[in-house]
User: Which sequence fits this backbone?
C-alpha cells in the first residue's frame, strides 16, 4: 500500500463501494460484532462506572507519565528485563534489528502489534534480510497477500473465506477452492506450529505495562503470543509509552472492559502476565515515543493516548463499516486512527478527521471515554487553520462565506438555485455534483422565506 | 542526552498537571451461584466443566473423555499414574508432542470463567498452549465473583509468568466464523472439586 499512490479517504471509499455485496457484508458483519459487544455490556450493571474508573486511571497515567515510566523501568530492570527507549519508528526498528543480530538469528515470529505496523517494522527487517512471520491468523493471511491489516482487532475482516482459501492454496498448499474456515485454520495451525518451534526470537505487543511490578500483559485468543514467546530464546515486547498503568489491581478494570468492548467476549482466552524471563531466556522491552509526547502536549488531543485498542469505535462507525480499513491509509483505521494519525503527519492524514459524520457513536462505546467525535471536529479546525484542508472544501467555504456575508448576493443565489432546480435540473443532477451521488436533489420551494414574509406582511 | 533522557524530558514538559488515581475502581458482582455462573460462561466460550466429588471421579471421566490417549502429562500428584510423559523438561520444545496436559488452577473467576495459573502450576510456561488438549482442575472454594476480587488475592509477580485462561484457544479471523483450536489447546475441560 505504501508504494502505491495513496487515495484520500473519500476516493478510496468510492473504490471500496464498487462491490456493493461485499460492502454490505462488511457493514453487517462489523455491526454484528458491535451487537455482541452490547450483549456483553448489558450483563455488567456497573459498566458505566467501570468506564469512568478506566478513564480516570488513564487520566492519571497521562498526568504522571514521567514518574510511572521511571518506576516501570526500575522494576522491570530488577526483574531481569532489558529496557530500550526509541524516539521514533526508525530507532525502534534499529533496536529490534540489533537484538535479532545479537541473538545470531535471521528470522523472527511475531504476534500482533499495531505499533510495529505504525513503525513499518516488517518491511524494514525484510530489507535487512530478516524473515518475519506474523502469527495471528488474520495477520498471517494479510501478510501472505502483501496487505496491511484493515482492522486493529480483525486484521482480515475485508476478505471473504474464498479469498482466504485462494491465498492459502497458493502459500500453504491447501486444496484449491477450499473455503471451510475450520479446514483453513487447521492448515495455518500446522504451518505456524512449525514456525513457533523453530524461531529463536519472538516479538509481541504489550496491552498493559504495570509500573508497580515492572511486568506487562499480552492478550490473545489464539495463544500465538504465548507460543512464540515461551519457545523463543529471546522475547522482545514493543510498546508505546502510553500502555503504562500504575498498579496490577487496575488490570481488573481494563481486562473487564477490553474483550467485551472488542468482540463481546467476557475476556480473551489468554491474558498473560510476563514479569521475568524464564531461565536462560532474554527479555527486552522497547518503549516507543514516535510522536506520542507531542500528542501528550496537545490539550485537545492528548486523551487519544488513553486508547486500549479494542476497536469498538471502528465496529460502530457508519463510515468505517462502509468504507473499509484501507481507505484510512494509516496503521490504525477508523475513528481512533483518524484522531491519532494527524499527529503523526498532518499533511498526509488531513483527510481523516473528515471521514466521519460526527454522530458520536464512537465516543459512546469507547471503554476509556475518549471524546473521539469532539476530537475529530477539533482536528478539522486545526487542519483548516494550518492550511491542510481539502482544496475543494476551502474554495467552497470561501464562496459560501462571501454569499452569506451579503444579503443581496444571498437573495440572488437563492433565486438562481430555485430556478436551476426547476428549469434546468440537469445542471445539478449529474455526476459532477458530489451532492447528487446517491441522493435526490430536493424539490425547490416556489419562493424564499424572505419573499413569503414580505408578501404575507402586506396582506 | 540519550534517547531515554530526551523522551522523558519531553514527556515531563508535555504532561498535564497531576490528576489523582480514582479511589473507587473496584466493584462487587453478585451471582446466586458462583459455580453455576462459572460453568455457564465457560460453556459459552467453548469450554466444558464438570462438578466432581473427588479425584476418583476425575480419573473415571478422563478415561471416557480421552480413551487410550498417550503423551499425557500432569502436575497433579493424585493422577501421576495417568501420565506417560512429563512437563518437567528443561527445553520447552520437548513438549511439542504433548497431547494432554492436566494441571491445577489455584484461582477461578465466575464472571468470565477465567482461571489463573502461574509457574507454581506450570513447569513450563508453554505447557497449556502447546498441548493439544488441556484439563484444569479447580476447587469450588477458590471461585471468586469477578476480576477485582481475583487481583486482590493475586500477586501477579510472585512467579515470572502467570496467565488467565478462559476456554480453548480460538479464532474468528476467517469471515468471523468461530473456529476452536487456533494455536493453543483444541479443548478445555475443567473439573470442579468441592
Assistant:
Amino acid at each position: 500500500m505504501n508504494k502505491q499512490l495513496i487515495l484520500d479517504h473519500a476516493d478510496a471509499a468510492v473504490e471500496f463501494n464498487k462491490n456493493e455485496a461485499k460492502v454490505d457484508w462488511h457493514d453487517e458483519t462489523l455491526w454484528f460484532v458491535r451487537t455482541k459487544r452490547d450483549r456483553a455490556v448489558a450483563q455488567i450493571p456497573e459498566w458505566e462506572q467501570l468506564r469512568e474508573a478506566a478513564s480516570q486511571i488513564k487520566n492519571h497515567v497521562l498526568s504522571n507519565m514521567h514518574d510511572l515510566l521511571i518506576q516501570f523501568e526500575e522494576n522491570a530492570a530488577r526483574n531481569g528485563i532489558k529496557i530500550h527507549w526509541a524516539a521514533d519508528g526508525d530507532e525502534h526498528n534499529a533496536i529490534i534489528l540489533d537484538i535479532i543480530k545479537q541473538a545470531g538469528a535471521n528470522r523472527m515470529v511475531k504476534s500482533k502489534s499495531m505499533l510495529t505496523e505504525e513503525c513499518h517494522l516488517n518491511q524494514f527487517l525484510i530489507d535487512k534480510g530478516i524473515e518475519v512471520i506474523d502469527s495471528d491468523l488474520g495477520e498471517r493471511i494479510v501478510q501472505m497477500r502483501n496487505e496491511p491489516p484493515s482492522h486493529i482487532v480483525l486484521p482480515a475482516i475485508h476478505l471473504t473465506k474464498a479469498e482466504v482459501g485462494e491465498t492459502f492454496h497458493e502459500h500453504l498448499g491447501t486444496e484449491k477452492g477450499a473455503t471451510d474456515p475450520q479446514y483453513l485454520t487447521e492448515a495455518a495451525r500446522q504451518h505456524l506450529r512449525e514456525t513457533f518451534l523453530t524461531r529463536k526470537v519472538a516479538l509481541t505487543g504489550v496491552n498493559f505495562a504495570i509500573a508497580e511490578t515492572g511486568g506487562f500483559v499480552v492478550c490473545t485468543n489464539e495463544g500465538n503470543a504465548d507460543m512464540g514467546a515461551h519457545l523463543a530464546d529471546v522475547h522482545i515486547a514493543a510498546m508505546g509509552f502510553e500502555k503504562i498503568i500504575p498498579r496490577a489491581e487496575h488490570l481488573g478494570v481494563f481486562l473487564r472492559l477490553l474483550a467485551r468492548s472488542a468482540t463481546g467476549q467476557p475476556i480473551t482466552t489468554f491474558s498473560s502476565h510476563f514479569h521475568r524471563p524464564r531461565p536462560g531466556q532474554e527479555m527486552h522491552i522497547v518503549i516507543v515515543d514516535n510522536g506520542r509526547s507531542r500528542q501528550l502536549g496537545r490539550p485537545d488531543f492528548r486523551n487519544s493516548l488513553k486508547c486500549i485498542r479494542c476497536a469498538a469505535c471502528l465496529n460502530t462507525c457508519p463510515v468505517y463499516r462502509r468504507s473499509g480499513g484501507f481507505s484510512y491509509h494509516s496503521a490504525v483505521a477508523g475513528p481512533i486512527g483518524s484522531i491519532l494519525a494527524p499527529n503523526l503527519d498532518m499533511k498526509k492524514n488531513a483527510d481523516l478527521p473528515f471521514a466521519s459524520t460526527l454522530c458520536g457513536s464512537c465516543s459512546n462505546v469507547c471503554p476509556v471515554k475518549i471524546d473521539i467525535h469532539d476530537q475529530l471536529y477539533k482536528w478539522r479546525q486545526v487542519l483548516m487553520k494550518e492550511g491542510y484542508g481539502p482544496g475543494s472544501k476551502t474554495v467552497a467555504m470561501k464562496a459560501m462565506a462571501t454569499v452569506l456575508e451579503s444579503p443581496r448576493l444571498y437573495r440572488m443565489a437563492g433565486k438562481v438555485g430555485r430556478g436551476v432546480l426547476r428549469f434546468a435540473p440537469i445542471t445539478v443532477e449529474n455526476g459532477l455534483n458530489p451532492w447528487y451521488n446517491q441522493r435526490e436533489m430536493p424539490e425547490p420551494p416556489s419562493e424564499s422565506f424572505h419573499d413569503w414574509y414580505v408578501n404575507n406582511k402586506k396582506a | 542526552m540519550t534517547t531515554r533522557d530526551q523522551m522523558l524530558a519531553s514527556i515531563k514538559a508535555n504532561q498535564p498537571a497531576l490528576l489523582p488515581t480514582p479511589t473507587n475502581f473496584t466493584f462487587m458482582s453478585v451471582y446466586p451461584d458462583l459455580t453455576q455462573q462459572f460453568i455457564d460462561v465457560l460453556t459459552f466460550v467453548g469450554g466444558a466443566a464438570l462438578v466432581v466429588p473427588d479425584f476418583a471421579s476425575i480419573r473415571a471421566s478422563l478415561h471416557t473423555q480421552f480413551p487410550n490417549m498417550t503423551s499425557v502429562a500432569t502436575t497433579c500428584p493424585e493422577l501421576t499414574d495417568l501420565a506417560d510423559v512429563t512437563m518437567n523438561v528443561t527445553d520447552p520444545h520437548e513438549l511439542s508432542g504433548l497431547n494432554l496436559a492436566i494441571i491445577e488452577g489455584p484461582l477461578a473467576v465466575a464472571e468470565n470463567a477465567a482461571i489463573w495459573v502461574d509457574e507454581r502450576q506450570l513447569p513450563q510456561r508453554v505447557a497449556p498452549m502447546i498441548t493439544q488438549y488441556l484439563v484444569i482442575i479447580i476447587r469450588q472454594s477458590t471461585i471468586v465473583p469477578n476480576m477485582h476480587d481475583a487481583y486482590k488475592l493475586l500477586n501477579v509477580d510472585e512467579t515470572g509468568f502467570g496467565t488467565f485462561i478462559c476456554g480453548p484457544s480460538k479464532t474468528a479471523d476467517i469471515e468471523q466464523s468461530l473456529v476452536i483450536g487456533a494455536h493453543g489447546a483444541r479443548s478445555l475441560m475443567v473439573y470442579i472439586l468441592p
About this structure: Chain B has one domain: 29-193.
